[in-house]
Amino acid sequence: MKVGIISDIHSNIDALNAVLEEFDKNSVEKIICLGDVIGIGPYSEQAVKRLMEVDEKIIGFVLGNHEGYLLNGIPKHRHNREDAEEIPLEEVKLHSWNHKQLSNESFQYIRKKKVEEIIEVDGKRIYLSHYAMDKDGKYKSFYRYGTGEELKSIYNGIETDAYLYGHTHTQHIVKHENKLYINPGSVGCPKNTDKACSVILDIDEGIIKASECNVEYDIDKVISDIKKISYPLNSMMIKVFYR
């Protein structure tokens, strides 16, 4: 069975469509989403609705921190960590604008999702979260390119065959002690990649193989859309997450 893994779509409907089309070309049967469907980009409603259209294929869907801002309120500090930088007012305005783009139908769809999940695919147990969390639900230390030992340490106590996460926007696949640790990268934030990033799992006869699935699309068109819509901090979003 082929399973497509996506994360960090961040309201980029063009990138999401490009990845889903590539999944179809590669005969992907099922989809896993690791959160942050909304935020940063211009098209939160369209991105959520697109996932609703392929919902029958989705076998795992966990919430990211941006969905957390929607459901639980925008926190005082980034990533809900007391030692982290306080979120400035302009960024609060950006999150609020993004939330207002969502219909009640999309809100209810998101609201039903969990922050972590363990699923089984062809006899393999797979742990899903937007990033590794401590017992209080706060994100642990961030590893963009973590070693096997580092990744093992942040998932200590969770016994599965594979661990899927996102959040860092960094595509990273590590096999360590017969376990797979997979970050598919960001679908919607192409900074430093110029592509929509994802991963395809191929699970066959008890063996899991992971391969990168990175797709080119019209990034300049998305940037043009962002400028036309001109929502809060749009210029910074382009600089930080696009070019």
Question: Which percent band covers the strand fraction?
Answer: 15-25%
Biggest β-sheet strands, sense, barrel: 5 strands, mixed
Tell me the strand order in the biggest sheet. Answer: 3-2-1-9-10
Fraction of residues in H or I helices:
25-40%
What is the alpha-carbon Rg in Å? 17 Å
- Reading the helices and strands in chain order gives EHEHEHHHEEHEEEEEHH
Number of strands: 10
CA(first)-CA(last) distance: 36 Å
Poorly predicted runs are: none
Mean pLDDT: 95
Structural class: alpha/beta
Number of helices: 8
Shape: globular
Summed up:
This protein is of the alpha/beta class. Helices cover 32% and strands 21% of the residues.
Describe the structure using short key phrases:
243 residues, 32% helix, 5-stranded mixed β-sheet, 21% strand, alpha/beta
Describe the structure.
It is a single chain. By secondary structure, the protein is an alpha/beta fold. The protein contains 8 helices and 10 strands. The strands form 2 sheets. A 5-stranded mixed beta sheet has the order 3-2-1-9-10, with no helix packed on it. Strands 4-5-6-8-7 form a 5-stranded mixed beta sheet, with helices on one face. The termini are far apart. The model has no long low-confidence stretch (mean pLDDT 95).
How would you summarize the topology of this molecule?
Blueprint: E1 2-6, H1 13-25, E2 30-33, H2 44-53, E3 58-61, H3 65-72, H4 89-100, H5 104-111, E4 116-121, E5 124-129, H6 148-154, E6 162-164, E7 171-176, E8 179-184, E9 199-204, E10 207-212, H7 219-229, H8 234-241
